[in-house]
């Protein structure tokens, strides 16, 4: 039975500082680096061997993927990077301390922006220092595809074509797949995999560690779901 292993990137420097991160390309913290290494060790201990790996174009996920593969002795496995696996774009909240944002906009409003399935946060200006417009890694995209703000609904719409075109076909071919991504892009795919409602997905949290494993039958119905090491 094919296996899909999701690893949310290890703790980032902005996770540590309690900042909204989104598409800002921040690095792993020391703890995050160690979490990625430990993820690789858990994968090795579980005897899971991958055929292909996928990650985003943000370095915290890329480094997590590389470290997890290295410490499971699978650094040779092909890795495909895609913007479609990026974290949810937090728009104008990007770079703000979450407590400061709550003080400015109110706890209730920030909670709605963070947790609502289909409410967008304020849009990011195109000349913002964290804007993806003009970033070379997105130069191949039509400008209209580059978001200025996303909710989980939009994140799923963006990630779903990658699931359908890349990940699902690999699993259907019997391949074991590693996905090193982000809390919300993984949540979006979990919603699709488990056929969760809009309300049900809001109660799903993806920790930085340990990795989440799904096992499937030939029709991509989930047969097992578990966290490594638990």
From TrEMBL:
TM region positions: none
Top-rank EC class of the record's enzyme: isomerase
Keyword Repeat tagged: no
One MF annotation (Gene Ontology) recorded for this entry: phosphoglycerate mutase activity
Entries under CDD domains matching the protein: HP_PGM_like
Binding positions for substrate per the UniProt entry: 8-15, 21-22, 60, 87-90, 98, 114-115, 183-184
InterPro entries in alphabetical order: His_Pase_superF_clade-1, His_PPase_superfam, Phosphogly_mut1
Site features described as Transition state stabilizer, chain residue numbers: 182
Enzyme Commission code: 5.4.2.11
Pfam families to which the protein is assigned, alphabetical: His_Phos_1
Catalytic residues, chain numbering: 9, 87
Biological process according to GO: gluconeogenesis; glycolytic process
Catalyzed reactions: (2R)-2-phosphoglycerate = (2R)-3-phosphoglycerate
Keywords: Gluconeogenesis, Glycolysis, Isomerase
Functional pathway: Carbohydrate degradation; glycolysis; pyruvate from D-glyceraldehyde 3-phosphate: step 3/5
Family: Belongs to the phosphoglycerate mutase family. BPG-dependent PGAM subfamily.
NCBIfam families: pgm_1, PRK14115.1, PRK14117.1
Role, per record: Catalyzes the interconversion of 2-phosphoglycerate and 3-phosphoglycerate.
Protein name, UniProt field: 2,3-bisphosphoglycerate-dependent phosphoglycerate mutase
């Amino acid at each position: 039975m094919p296996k899909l292993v999701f690893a949310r990137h290890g703790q980032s420097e902005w996770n540590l500082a309690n900042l909204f991160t989104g598409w800002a390309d921040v690095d792993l913290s020391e703890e995050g680096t160690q979490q990625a290494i430990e993820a690789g060790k858990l994968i090795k201990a579980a005897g899971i061997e991958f055929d292909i790996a996928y990650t985003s174009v943000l370095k915290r996920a890329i480094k997590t993927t590389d470290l997890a593969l290295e410490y499971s002795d699978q650094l040779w496995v092909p890795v495909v990077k895609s913007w479609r696996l990026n974290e949810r774009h937090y728009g104008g909240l990007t770079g703000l301390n979450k407590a400061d944002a709550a003080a400015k906009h109110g706890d209730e409003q920030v909670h709605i922006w963070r947790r609502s399935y289909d409410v967008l946060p304020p849009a990011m200006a195109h000349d913002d220092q964290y804007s993806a417009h003009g970033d070379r890694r997105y130069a191949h995209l039509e400008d209209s595809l580059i978001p200025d703000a996303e909710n989980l609904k939009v994140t799923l719409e963006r990630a779903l074509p990658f699931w359908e075109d890349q990940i699902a076909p690999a699993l259907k071919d019997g391949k074991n797949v590693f996905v090193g991504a982000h809390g919300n892009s993984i949540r979006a795919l979990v919603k699709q995999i488990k056929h969760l409602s809009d309300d049900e997905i809001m109660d799903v949290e993806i920790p930085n560690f340990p990795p989440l494993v799904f096992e499937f039958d030939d029709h991509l119905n989930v047969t097992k779901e578990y966290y490594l090491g638990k």
